[in-house]
Amino acid sequence: MSEEVAAATTVPATAAETSPDNPWPLQLLSQKLKMHIDRAPSAWIEGQVIELNRRGTNAYLTLRDIDAEISLPASVWTNVLDRQNTPLERGSRVVALIKAEFWLKTGRLNMSVKDIRPVGLGDLLARIERLRHALAAEGLFSDARKKRLPLLPHRIGLITGRDSDAKKDVLRNAALRWPAVEFEIREVAVQGNTAVAQVVAALRELDAHPEVDVIVIARGGGALEDLLPFSSEELIRAVSDAATPVVSAIGHEADRPILDDVADLRASTPTDAAKRIVPDVVEELARVRQALDQLRRGVTRLVERETDRLASLRSRPVLASPEIMVSLRHDDVERLKGRSQAAVTTAVVRATDQLAHLKAQVRALSPQKTLDRGYAVVQLAGGDTAPGTRREVVRHPDQTPSGTPLAVRVAGGRFTAESTGGQEPADG
Question: What is the pTM for the complete model shown?
């Protein structure tokens, strides 16, 4: 008993502590795996039934991922399958509650289906709408994120099915509208579990292509299940992140996967996409001709209008007879010259008359005029008067006693006299 206890205490506590000299017993490993797997919770998964075999009370099925090449074998009790209203078949899309189980004796891992439910069209539509609303809330469908398509793409990237009618419709209608159009084609799976991965890879490759100006994702119509890859969240986010404008041309007019909402342009059909991504060469040539006609008419009207303006300007007197400007100014100068001469002459004559009048007034008031009227100026003619000194004028008889020498100035000249004595002036 003591030997068994000693042996037990030498077993490593964890797998990391094991070694070639001190290994775990297989039983211990299996027990620990079972304990670990038993603690794992059950999980609901979604997939497609690709194999289904009934064997008594058990059934064995294989589920495959919707968008990837991954499959998982599982077992289920037949009474779980019998609870379904519609029998499960190969190709059915289901959601299943799976619990991992580890068989201790055989060391096998088994995936046990505890419940399974088929996914109907209503469930798919509800799931798509929930995803649509969630992505819209993030702003992935906002008009501000939409990129404008080029007027004439240099090269068009086309993602479509292998040798599909959608590919033929796009190529044929685009070539009819613009014969020189060029395509960069990527043929991928457009339905099934590999469709999303291939479409996303082709989208990223074309988005990185320097000559591709617009990318078209085209597929013909189909059932709702066939169009599910174009409502995949992975594809929607890849389109939203693309730097190149993306055109969605999926299905028919009534089909509307989420790709239509995130794409920069939604075309109702592949044919409609071809018509909307390239212009019609006939229409463009007609527009060019129309533009040339409008340009020609505009230039003609401009030339005619300017010709009329030149004729109007040339008909004006100043241009018809340019010398009239000089002659008019010459006449004005002559007229002003005559007026100035007349004004100067009048001023001179008036000044001359005024001067003569003033001169006559001055002469009338001069002493000479007084002398000419018979008056005389009597001055004392004493000998002691200094040279240059004015002689005293006699203003009263008392100034000339008898024998006083006088100097008398009359109009004709001077003479001397001698006073004989003063007398009082007569009355009156």
Answer: 0.55
